[in-house]
Amino acid sequence: MLFSRWKLRRCARVGSAPTVRGRVSVVGPGSVLVGDDVLLDGAWAPIELKTFDADSQIVLGDRVRIESGTSIEAVASVRIGAGARLGTFSKVMDNHFHSLAGDRHVRPSSDPVEIGEGAAIGDRAVLLAGANVGAGALVRAGAVVGRRLPVPAGAVASGHPSRLEADG
After folding, report:
1. Residues 79-88: pLDDT tens digits?
2. Lowest CB count within 10 Å: 8, 100, 113, 164, which one?
3. Confidence band (pLDDT; 50, 70, 90) for 168?
4. pLDDT, tens digit, for every residue of 125-150?
């Protein structure tokens, strides 16, 4: 546990009993807040927690599990609720980092990303700026979720672009 705390030394707050396997990179001027009993499993590939501005914030709730190769990038805010899980090589970002038209060197405004308590994000899923995944929801592997389709609590989303799966 002491070695895990050392790996998370750049975080603004680290809760009790963190577990870090492999490599975890915490970079940027913003703050990363880590809850209790968080598992960051970068054994196969490094995990990146990156903030871009001094007031950028990444918040990992209690008992969050983040798998190898995951990247979380915040210009404004990314919040992950208690007990949520992010699968291997998933990507979460609150900004597109360039506009699709006009001056591509100007960063567009950010839309915070929220992942609810107990939500599960599948392997290689991508959550774009403004994504909102409700408590207990499932985002299937490879799905791309953006601001246009919030995933309600308990729902299942899949596909690119994502769509909600019918009950049954």
Report:
1. 999 999 999 9
2. 100
3. very low
4. 999 999 999 999 999 999 999 998 89
The helix/strand count (H/E) of the chain reads as 1, 18
pTM: 0.91
9/76 Cα distance (integer angstroms): 21
Backbone angles phi, psi at 62, to 5 degrees: -60, 145
Cβ-Cβ contacts under 8 Å for 143 (sequence gap 6 or more): 122, 125, 126, 157, 158, 159, 160, 162
- Residue in the block written with tokens 């929220």: 114
Output the six-digit token pair for 103: 């001056």
Residue partners of 96: CB distance under 8 A and separation at least 6: 108, 128, 129
CA distances from 56 to 7, 18, 93, 106, 153 (A): 20, 22, 12, 18, 26
